[in-house]
Amino acid sequence: MNHDTGAILVLSGPSGAGKSSLIKKIEKEIGAYYFSISTTTRPIREGEVEGVHYYFVDREQFEADIEEENFLEYAKVHGNYYGTSIKPVKKALKEGKLVIFDIDVQGHDAVQKRLADITTSVFVTTPTLCELKQRLNARGTDAQEIIDGRIDVAKREVQRISEYDYLVINDDLDEAAAVLVNIAKAARMKIPSIKINEFVLNWEDIC
Ligand code: 5GP
């Protein structure tokens, strides 16, 4: 069977759960991949780079992109828009890459509705809410009311873990990364239904 069609790996989970660190940690072990850089209206944080962490745009620009149907999915998270542009995702899938999304539960829902048969999803979280609070406070990049907002969203998001294929508890980064490498490798092997039909037809016809 030829697994050359590309696949999607969705990572969701609270801000501060360590999704970015995990992606960095596994990138050399998972083969050709494309990390989807989202567009957002939220203010840039210290240490972030335009075009690396996000494309930072204003509300008008984002709403124009919605109008032009440039997004595969978009959602309002913590009062700001976040969205995934379709074009680079399509290109990467055509090139047979594993496309990695760091998106929230609403985004995951939308991706599942459109591309379920090539999507594998993972919810990443801290072992406890208490640990999440400590990590967000230690990060020191956000004001207390923003941190409180993120904690409220996190409490709601964990209620939806059952919608995901896998749960990765990021207690020890190395251990969580090892689990994620296995999931990413399996995600690549997921067979889209169109390929299955093709295989069955050929399997019956060719002697
Ligand atoms: P942060 O502001 O901490 O970078 O991200 C906040 C939340 O927005 C995270 O849960 C992250 O997964 C989510 N997010 C980032 N980009 C996107 C996107 O393109 N679409 C959706 N639906 N969520 C996103």
Structure description:
The protein is of the alpha/beta class. It has a domain at 7-36 and 97-203: P-loop containing nucleotide triphosphate hydrolases (Rossmann fold, 3-Layer(aba) Sandwich), CATH 3.40.50.300. The chain has eight helices and nine strands. The strands form two sheets. A five-stranded parallel sheet has the order 2-7-1-8-9, sandwiched between helices. A four-stranded mixed sheet has the order 4-3-6-5. A hairpin with a 2-residue loop joins β5 (71-77) and β6 (80-85). The mean pLDDT is 93.
| CATH class (first level) name of one domain | Alpha Beta
Overall structural class, as computed from helix and strand content, comes to: alpha/beta
The helix/strand order is EHEEEHEEHEHEHHEHH
Helix content: 40-55%
Distance between the termini: 16 Å
Strand arrangement in the largest pleated sheet? 2-7-1-8-9
Q: What percentage of amino acids are in beta strands? A: 15-25%
Radius of gyration: 18 Å
Taking the sheet with the most strands, its summary is: 5 strands, parallel
- At CATH level 2, the architecture of one domain is 3-Layer(aba) Sandwich
Mean pLDDT: 93
Question: What is the count of helical runs?
Answer: 8
Shape: globular
Q: Find the CATH superfamily of one domain.
A: P-loop containing nucleotide triphosphate hydrolases
The CATH topology of one domain is Rossmann fold
Number of strands: 9
Return residue spans where pLDDT drops below 50 for at least 5 consecutive residues: none
**Ligands bound to this protein structure:** guanosine-5'-monophosphate
